[in-house]
Amino acid sequence: MVYNGTIVFYIDEWNVRIWRFCAMELHHKSGKVKLNRARNSIEDSFIEGIKACVPTLLGYLSIGFAAGVVGKTAGLSFIEIALMSLLIYAGSAQFIAIGMIVAGASATTIISTIFFVNLRHFLLSASLSPYLKHLTPLRNSFIGTLLTDETFGVAMNEAVTKKSLGEKWMHGLNITAYLNWFFANLLGAYFGQWITNPESLGLDFALAAMFIGLLILQMASRMKVLIDIIVAISAVVVVVGVSLFTSGSIGIILAIVIASTVGVVIEKWD
Fold first, then answer.
1. Who has the most CB within 10 Å: 56, 101, 150, 170?
2. Where are the beta strands (DSSP E) in 77-128?
3. 205 and 229 inside one domain
4. Residue 259 region, left (φ>0) first, then alpha (ψ -120 to 50), else beta?
5. Are residues 77 and 9 in the same domain?
6. Three-state secondary structure readout of 115-137
7. For 141-190, how does the pLDDT look when each residue is reduced to its tens digit (9 = 90+)?
8. 30 and 107 both lie in a single domain
9. 236 and 216 in one domain?
10. If 0-12 CB within 10 Å is exposed, 13-18 middle and 19+ buried, where does residue 256 land?
11. Cα separation of 88 and 157, whole Å?
């Protein structure tokens, strides 16, 4: 009986140790799961999306202000400028639309021109879609509706170190940019009666300066400076060379395609 009792004692002791080990493992794993969920919830936070948009706010404010001023000087009313900002929501398209309205172009011509100018958004959305494939097409469409060049740049800079982007984070980024653009247009429309030349204040360079800042941030996070420099040189050579024989717009399009291809090939060989 003692022998059997000893065996039972050892068996019970090992059972206790096994249960303790399992409990510790489950606690450790559940702690990791909770930590990962907490991190994901922070990364997919609407507030974090707002914070990510902050570097673009000044650029939006400047170019949006200029768009409002140009619209006001072109004879558009405050309401017309506000509606154009909310419904078109595209800097280059708004400038083009204002110029065509002043020139007396038809509505069909203005709409078709803006459509072709904004075709680049198909490429922007396609580039961003792999990071949003965990969402349904309907939910993706809400994100894509407010996607701009600037928010695309911020999102791609964020996607460098991640496999996916959070829905709440994207909404925080997009909605902040959208409201800031609308507010800037209204400011420009209001103060436009006193400002006749926005270029004299350097507002025409605000958008370019913002994109340069976004580019530098993305290059710094990628840590592939040599490849980025080669791609940049390729783009400059192509755009300058093609522009000598045809329009600058075609040169820019070819430079984007060729330089991007060069970068992809180099990264695969590296």
1. 170
2. none
3. no
4. alpha
5. no
6. HHHCCHHHHHHHHHHHHCCCCCH
7. 899 889 988 898 889 888 877 888 889 999 999 999 999 999 999 998 99
8. no
9. no
10. middle
11. 25
